[in-house]
């Protein structure tokens, strides 16, 4: 009811604030027998970690997870898993500004309106800090879908400001392309088009110097997803993935396949005709093109799932903005603290985690109803 | 789990197929004491009804609802409400084509992959026919939010193909503008910009003649929504509205406020500064501009909620398309039956219904946690 | 939230009142491919039907179900199933008495307190009339568990007033023993001990003549349930079966195996030691005795599940009882209408239905998490 | 789905094992503005704590809770609350016995059957150790109902073995009577009848000397509960309280008011007639007697809620019992470790917690649907 849980068969519940003791997630419904260590969790946590590159906030968090429950002798037991990630770099500082003033683009005002009270330190529960445990849960979800059907989720940055990456086949992008540039250095902006990546880095550094921020688009692709996942009529796979992505801070739009471009097209252009391929296990039904983004009737079609999320520019700006105080009296604010000038590079592992969680959830739900599945 | 329910405090569960006996909805959690008659339901049902204009399918359904439960002496009792809408115009005809072949852009293949069996008559449960009971439930949701906080949800067609309506202030659009043209005739395309409306009608008639279809965008606006609705962190209002709209057939994208345009902007452009207005009950906090679309941190801000849904061109085309049979062997199909060449005009009341249901649900959830609310 | 749904993977949602148009159930999550006809539903509906014998209310309902959705060509499709059972014998009569007065032992007062309004005709939603669609759903659940693991649920009357049946091995009782006496006549009280059955019939007829009613106990047994169903820690199988039975009108107590008798015992007496039996598929682990009632740690042990429900005497009495009016002023009431002098005989199929629904639900949930199950 | 959450509007999710790092609970939906400190949690945790008296296990746990989230400046914020209680006295010892053998009366076998793997240390997730965080959550629930309607939940031991306490008016029992004997010493058995308490202590000490254990009954009473809580038809208050209590280890039966005794009675004896009392705020409707246990139609009647739970004798016995090994081969086991010879004294705060959680949940649910409530 109060919204701090997500998923049904693979269900996560979270708690935690930006500057409280830490963030915790309980993962319920994970199949037993899956190998899991804290090291497994660390890889994606490091991809999300603040301080990882010059493009992101310099808040210093090691984001070391503690496995509190649900894992024994290195494997999941089938009972609920709990992971705690403590906050360590809660700078002792003066919050008087955001205690009494509402930061434009933030949830300060809406939390006060909702609860009459709020933990104003660093945005409290509305801070993107809470996503740290989503990423940990996402690692487990990725293991579930990899084991169940070889499923794989990979995200990257498609657009920053007016710089748009050239990606001919989203399903072909590899983790290596996302994380590493052709010259072997870290791809700190996580854009698989090296030329665009360089321009994005430049743009982000420019906006930071200008005490500003910039928006963008992340594209996330799930491959090897079998046809048949997703539930009619309300829990369509596209509905649940969209909910998952819109549950993330700063997401302003979500689209699949053609997305908003479909509005301009004729049906004869938009439809993906069917054909089949002969394989060792029989004929596989596929579509020519993937305008539909991997789901039809809200159920996976066997084609790659391709989704894009529009992420707004960071709202926290180190420049003066017009605002009001709690009592409505006029004021202005310059947000201090350490912030990403562009959210996209760190959004990638978070978006991946949410998509993986939806796929794990829908796989278990589907397996429950159908049976006879591995 | 199996996805035929939506909402929590105001919860709907549905069943029904395109060519079965009918569609039924159970609405659970509706407050007691709300006046409700079948006539109340009919207005929006008529806005969604096939056969209402020359632009839409000529399937002849009166869509007369029967109130089976939950209403006594003309008011809701607080117990579960059930509404049945029978199918009456299930044309007795030959379904051999869609029984054995998969229609491009449809859920025929994915349902078979999911269940191993499907009701192929008219698309079965995947048909947009199922939305008829969502509209009925939406009428009740509209009553709930009107009574609780004077909330009002109105949708319209913003784009068809390349024709884009001019709408300066979404929150100012009236039902009258959506339903009636300045000359007093019916606004059959439901676009509040009369000039664009005329072009849209022309375009839709053209594509029909070409045995084709066309996509578009619907914009839906909720006004008088108080600040404070929506739940952190997964059940953000924007997450649940997006899920609601993506649960509708043919929706390929959803965006709020600036939407995907935010990717191109700087934070200093995108942020909506706060100011306040002195009113009889004290200062009201508002934003200059509504780039954020009425929600911050996923919680309503008190500004109008503005959401757009991209709707793909109707997949059913009365022209030959490449496809396969169930066994994967190549084939082709020309969809017969009665179809809308553009889904947008009838999408409007359906989209409104889903947004209203989310708002009613979140209001009751919020009232439960906070208390002291009317 | 508002309580008109039950179960998760196999989920039923219901609506309907005693004297409204009818009762409807939506069953969500039923596996596809299960043969289902209205005739299948009728058998248990007839076992629950009013008017079936001289022991029960003479309200005349045929209880003919209509399958509105989810079944095509005689088999379930995997989409939501809807069943409607219309009320036909709603006697047109004067409800002034129960409109203004509260019947002792009934929900008249509590519904008014809850909702401020109620459908007073025949008890409205609080009438046991609503269980008619539970029985229909239970038939489908019985099919699910029979197909999945050969599961079988059978109930009977164990006690009426001071008459207690002798049942040495609950797991050995057959449907035939419950429905038919050794002489071939109908076992109208549904007690498998013929001697006790005769005494129960006599007792029930006596209390009816005395314008009174009498309570009793029903025992329900589930056999061939594999070890492993039930979820830690809150959704223990014993917790969900208890909730299912306590959700029925008039149930005042539920116990498993030893039940309340365990309070008097030592651990050395109460524990069931383990042993194993060699079978064709390996050793089967069993317990000596079944004090534990078929569940340990809330998870099925592979032994028969044995549960008892205490059912209070019918509250509606055709004799004067002290009560109050809505405004609290003193009054008295003699309940008219047609009532069972003892609820137990018709309770049997209703209790069975609820236990079967829980088992179907938990089987699908378990299969989802574990996989590799038929 | 996987059962580690309970409640809807006031919802708890838990994780943790007997001998893992600790137990954690996330409480979602708690109203904002409630004062809460770790000291508040400690009182009931101490009532449940091992080692508190000579009657209970001597495992040494301080059960010190850490508030990880959801509380700021000493009050709840309305966002999810997380509480961690670490295990400190996990004796390093040899678990070979319970690793390979199934303890009679325990969940060792059923967990293996369910998951194929289990954390065998001290029973893992099936240990009553998991209830420690339920008690912490229960403290918060008690605060919610006290603030909302002055609600109060108190439990005590009604029976141990054949010793049954005399309790004339359950609603009159005070916490002081439960915790302290007339002579000022601790009432270590938590029975409010001092004479019975003395006999219970003696009996428990006797069975411990005999290397045995003994069962009993706890009675829990909720007072000042307004009429109107509980939802038709599946989420009746009696159904949810029963589920809550049956979700606790060792509970074999639950009954309300007359309970199983109702089977012996006539309706004319069992019904509670209504009368009314004139108070300052108008007439209050009450019943003569409380055979119904405070709920009618599953909805609270305004009378005290009285529920009893039968708790089996501790299954762990320090004496040889017949059992099998994992492979089914015959064996025997003598449970070592530190165990309570009677579970009842420590059951009291646990049972109270579960009843309080159900009442808090149903109050918030009711308030959401009805509105206008404090």
In short:
Chain A is of the alpha+beta class and 374 residues long.
Question: How would you sum up this structure, described in words?
Answer:
The structure is a homotetramer of 374-residue chains. Chain A has 374 residues and is α+β, with helices and mostly antiparallel strands. In chain A, a hairpin with a 4-residue loop joins strand 1 and strand 2. The first copy, chain A, has nine helices and 18 strands. The interface between A and B is large, with 119 and 119 residues. Strand 11 (251-256) of chain A pairs antiparallel with strand 11 of chain B, so a sheet runs across the interface.
Task: Estimate the mean pLDDT confidence of chain A.
Answer: 95
As a percent range, the share of helical residues of chain A equals 25-40%
CATH superfamily of the domain at 90-257 and 292-370 in chain A: Chorismate synthase AroC
Following the backbone from N to C, one meets helices and strands of chain A in this order, namely: EEEHEEEEHHHEEHHEHEHEEEEEEEH
CATH fold-level name of the domain at 90-257 and 292-370 in chain A:
Chorismate synthase, AroC fold
Task: Report the portion of residues of chain A in β strands.
Answer: 15-25%
């Amino acid at each position: 009811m109060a919204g701090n849980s997500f998923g049904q068969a693979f269900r996560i519940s979270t708690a935690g604030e930006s500057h409280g003791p830490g963030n915790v997630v309980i993962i319920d419904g994970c199949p037993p027998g899956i190998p899991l260590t804290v090291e497994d969790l660390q890889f994606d946590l490091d991809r999300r970690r603040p301080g990882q590159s010059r493009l992101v906030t310099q808040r210093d968090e090691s984001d070391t997870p503690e496995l509190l429950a649900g894992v024994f002798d290195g494997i999941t037991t089938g009972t609920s898993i709990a992971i705690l990630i403590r906050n360590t770099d809660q700078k002792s500082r003066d919050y008087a500004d955001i205690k009494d003033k509402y930061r434009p683009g933030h949830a300060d005002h809406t939390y006060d309106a909702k609860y009459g009270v709020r933990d104003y330190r660093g945005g409290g529960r509305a801070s993107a800090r809470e996503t740290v445990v989503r990423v940990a849960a996402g690692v487990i979800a990725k293991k579930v879908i990899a084991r169940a059907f070889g499923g794989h989720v990979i995200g990257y940055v498609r657009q920053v400001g007016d710089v748009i990456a050239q990606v001919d086949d989203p399903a072909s992008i590899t983790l290596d392309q996302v994380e590493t540039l052709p010259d072997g250095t870290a791809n700190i902006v996580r854009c698989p088009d090296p030329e665009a990546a360089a321009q994005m880095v430049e743009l982000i550094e420019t906006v930071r110097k200008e005490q500003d921020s910039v928006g963008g688009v992340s594209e996330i692709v799930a491959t090897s997803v079998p046809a048949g996942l997703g539930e009619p009529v309300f829990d369509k796979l596209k509905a649940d993935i969209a909910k998952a992505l819109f549950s993330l801070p700063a997401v302003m739009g979500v689209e699949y396949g053609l997305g908003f471009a479909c509005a301009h097209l004729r049906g004869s252009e938009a439809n993906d005709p069917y054909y089949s391929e002969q394989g060792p296990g029989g004929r596989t039904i596929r579509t020519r093109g993937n305008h539909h983004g991997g789901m039809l009737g809200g159920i996976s079609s066997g084609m790659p799932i391709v989704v894009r999320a529009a992420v707004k520019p960071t709202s926290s700006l180190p420049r003066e903005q017009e605002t009001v105080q709690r009592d409505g009296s006029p004021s202005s604010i310059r947000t201090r603290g350490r912030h990403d000038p562009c959210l996209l590079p760190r959004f990638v592992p978070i978006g991946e985690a949410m998509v993986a969680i939806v796929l794990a959830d829908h796989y278990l739900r589907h397996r429950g109803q159908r049976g006879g599945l591995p």
